[in-house]
UniProtKB/TrEMBL annotation:
It comes from the Bacteria. Keywords: Pyridoxal phosphate. It comes from Pedobacter vanadiisoli. NCBIfam families: YggS family pyridoxal phosphate-dependent enzyme. This is Pyridoxal phosphate homeostasis protein.
Length: 233
């Protein structure tokens, strides 16, 4: 099946439930992204800053770019002019840098707090208590150029559907508590970003509002090493 055919299948399945489909385009060439774009896809997710910057410069300007990978503070300035949503915010320090760079670009940047829900040591994210601590902090209250619109989580990489269901459900329950406690009057706090190719169906059942699907749409990834033109400073 072509990219357009794969995309049509996922869009009809996912969007019929009111869930946003993020086409994960990391390591995919411009031609493949354009094929998805011409098939109606507008939201694309990238893991690496340099790759997203390169692609944004070459592709249509009505694309919504989501940064879904781990973000270093020293790279925020490169995506601040255009990024639509940053999924993996896992510290107050990172949030402060996003706010600083958003202000420089006269923007408010939407963010999701990444919550650690997996039974693995390799995942990033805040603990439940750390999310509460962050949202109570005076430093957070001082930020004017970011907007927290929801939570993001990655389940354990396992075939145990019971465990995945439990982890996604735990995040949903936590989201509802945070909504009541901190965002009761903010309609914008509505997103739960969970679910990838292997577990998106479970994620949707457990309240996900956006799923991240890549290889199932684009086929096997083409590994391309993007030149790192972005310095570490």
């Amino acid at each position: 099946m072509s990219i357009a055919d794969n995309l049509k299948q996922y869009k009809s399945e996912v969007e019929s439930d009111g869930v946003k489909l993020i086409a994960v385009s990391k390591t995919q060439p411009i031609e493949s992204i354009l094929e998805a774009y011409h098939a109606g896809q507008r939201i694309f997710g990238e893991n690496h800053v340099q790759e997203m910057v390169d692609k944004e410069a070459q592709l249509p300007k009505d694309i919504e770019w989501h940064l879904i990978g781990h973000l270093q503070t020293n790279k925020v300035k490169y995506i601040a002019p255009f990024v639509k949503l940053i999924h993996g915010v896992d510290s107050l320090k990172l949030l402060q840098e996003i706010d600083k760079q958003a202000a420089k670009n006269k923007r408010v940047i939407d963010c999701l707090l990444q919550v650690y829900i997996a039974d693995e040591d390799t995942k990033f994210g805040l603990g439940f208590d750390e999310v509460v601590e962050l949202l109570r902090a005076d430093e957070y209250a001082a930020l004017k150029n970011i907007r927290i619109v929801g939570l993001m989580g990655i389940a354990t990489n396992t075939k145990n559907e019971k465990q995945i269901t439990f982890e996604f459900n735990e995040l949903k329950v936590f989201f509802e508590g945070i909504k009541v406690s901190f965002f009761r009057k903010e309609d914008s706090f509505k997103e739960i970003s969970t679910g990838m190719s292997a577990d998106y169906k479970i994620a949707i059942k457990e309240g996900s509002t956006m799923v991240r699907i890549g290889s199932s749409i684009f086929g096997k990834r083409i590994i391309k090493h993007f030149k790192n033109n972005i310095s570490a400073n």
